[in-house]
């Protein structure tokens, strides 16, 4: 079972269908969400316009509601939790897509 140059060309340059397009966008969404949460958690670690004394509250804190303008801010610990959640989701999507792609490729060769 030797692979011809035509089969090698098919392996290197895969055809992309609608499912691939959807998965690529889902992975891009996961990566961008992780990046935005990390940037927000890093830049607003000590305080933000909404909550200037954030560093005095510790790892996590409840929402104060109307006392802080009716909205909530997240702690660094909450940002870390969200990043881990999105990271695990994205790794799951990539792993499933990679396995699915290789299973379908091996059935066509």
Largest sheet: none
The share of residues in extended strands comes to under 5%
Output the helix-strand order.
Answer: HHH
> What structural class results from the helix and strand content?
mainly alpha
Radius of gyration: 22 Å
Task: Furnish the topology, listing elements before pairings.
Layout: H1 5-12, H2 18-43, H3 76-108
Helix pairs in contact: 2-3
Highlighted features:
single chain, 109 residues, mainly alpha, 3 helices, rod-shaped, membrane, transmembrane helix, PSI_PsaA/B_sf, Photosystem I
Overview of the molecule:
Helices cover 61% and strands 0% of the residues. The protein has one domain. The chain contains three helices and no strands. With 109 residues, the protein is mainly alpha-helical.
TL;DR of this structure?
Keywords: Membrane, Transmembrane, Transmembrane helix. This is Photosystem I. With 109 residues, the chain is an all-alpha fold.
């Amino acid at each position: 079972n030797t692979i011809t140059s035509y089969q090698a060309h098919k392996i290197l340059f895969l055809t992309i269908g609608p499912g691939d397009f959807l998965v690529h966008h889902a992975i891009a969404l996961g990566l961008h969400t992780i990046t935005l949460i990390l940037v927000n958690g890093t830049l607003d670690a000590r305080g933000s316009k909404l909550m200037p004394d954030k560093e005095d509250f510790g790892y996590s804190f409840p929402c104060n509601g109307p006392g802080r303008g009716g909205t909530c801010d997240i702690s660094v610990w909450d940002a870390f939790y969200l990043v881990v959640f999105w990271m695990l989701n994205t790794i799951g999507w990539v792993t499933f897509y990679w396995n699915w792609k290789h299973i379908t490729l091996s059935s066509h060769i």
